[in-house]
């Protein structure tokens, strides 16, 4: 069965390791530009078609400028093919302008090591069906809100007009069409949560750099995000995300650096770019 994300990141090889994609506005954010996690998924999908290993291990992407709906090209370079880990870099361009650059490492979970040490468990929260539907509470619609379903154990303060000043949240997320989570979707999800900077009055931001580390092959439909911003300095903020499956197992970790949109401090709108 085809799902929304699969259609939105589909690519056609153009020769060598080049791919042609169609960027859609269906993942646009409050900034009216495609979500950074979606752009990352576009690149990751193309790289996985060229990879010697089946699973992504990490992706680190830098955004030079927002993407626009329409055609785009992804050029992939094989940096190194290793026994356990291979590395590629990829550049997404539109009309000759570089939009984003990613470095992707891939491997095979079936051939991974056996050492385990996991003292930090998943947050203890109610199941998604016992949580509040945040999508119904966000007053301003935008395309990305139609791509995901959000459930949270508590309604965040900014949605009730009473920001708490605490830039941390727990929120369940699911693809709106109930697509099972895999690495491609997990990488998009980490950049799709309602922004915790809304709790200090800033709702819109644009991602400058995003790194995602994948920690297992997911087997879940819902994922729990623990989202934290620790430092806002000179208009830039970090955002760390832990993504857990329904069984309480860690799926992915991410960190991004983003810039807050000037003058976007009072309008209750949406999710980060």
Description of the structure:
10% of the residues lie in helices and 39% in strands. Helix 2 packs antiparallel against helix 3 (183-189). The longest helix has 15 residues, at 36-50. It has one domain (4-110, 128-260): Acyl-CoA thioesterase, double hotdog domain (Porin). It is globular and about 55 Å long. Strands 1, 2, 3, 4, 5, 6, 7, 8, 9, 10, 11, 12, 13 and 14 form a 14-stranded antiparallel beta sheet that branches. The chain has helices spanning 4-9, 36-50, 183-189, and strands at 11-15, 18-23, 55-63, 70-81, 86-94, 97-107, 132-133, 148-152, 168-175, 205-214, 222-228, 232-233, 236-244, 250-260. It has 273 residues and is mainly beta. This is Thioesterase family protein.
Number of helical elements: 3
What is the CATH topology?
Porin
Amino- and carboxy-terminal Cα gap: 28 Å
Alpha-beta content class: mainly beta
Q: Any low-confidence stretches, pLDDT <50, length ≥5?
A: 264-273
Approximately what portion of the residues adopt beta-strand conformation? 35-45%
3D shape:
globular
Largest beta-sheet details = 14 strands, antiparallel
Oligomerization: single chain
- Assigned CATH architecture: Beta Barrel
> Can you write the helix and strand succession as a string?
HEEHEEEEEEEHEEEEE
Chain-averaged pLDDT:
93
CATH class: Mainly Beta
Radius of gyration: 18 Å
Helix % is 10-25%
The overall number of domains is 1
Total beta strand runs? 14
- The CATH homologous superfamily is named Acyl-CoA thioesterase, double hotdog domain
């Amino acid at each position: 069965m085809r799902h929304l994300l699969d259609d939105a990141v589909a690519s056609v090889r153009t020769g060598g390791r080049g791919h042609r994609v169609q960027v859609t506005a269906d993942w646009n954010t409050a900034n009216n530009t495609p979500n950074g996690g979606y752009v990352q998924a576009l690149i990751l999908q193309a790289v996985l078609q060229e990879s010697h290993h089946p699973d992504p291990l990490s992706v680190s992407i830098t955004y030079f400028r927002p993407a626009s709906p329409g055609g785009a090209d992804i050029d992939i370079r094989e940096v190194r093919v290793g026994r356990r880990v291979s590395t590629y870099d990829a550049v997404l361009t539109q009309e000759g302008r570089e939009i984003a650059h990613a470095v992707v490492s891939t491997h095979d979970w079936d051939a991974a090591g056996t050492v385990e040490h996991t003292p930090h468990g998943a947050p203890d929260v109610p199941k998604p069906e016992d949580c509040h539907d945040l999508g119904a509470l966000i007053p301003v619609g935008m395309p990305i809100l139609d791509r995901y379903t959000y459930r949270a154990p508590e309604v965040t303060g900014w949605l009730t007009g009473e920001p708490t000043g605490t830039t941390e949240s727990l929120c369940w997320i699911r693809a709106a069409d109930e697509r099972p989570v895999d690495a491609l979707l997990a990488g998009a999800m980490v950049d799709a949560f309602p922004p915790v900077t809304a709790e200090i009055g800033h709702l819109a931001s644009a991602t400058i750099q995003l790194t995602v580390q994948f920690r297992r092959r997911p087997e879940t439909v819902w994922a729990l995000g623990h989202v934290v911003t620790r430092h806002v300095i000179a208009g830039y903020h970090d955002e760390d995300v832990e993504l857990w499956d329904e069984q309480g197992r860690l799926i992915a970790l991410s960190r991004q650096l983003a810039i807050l949109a000037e003058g976007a401090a009072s309008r209750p709108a949406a999710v980060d770019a």
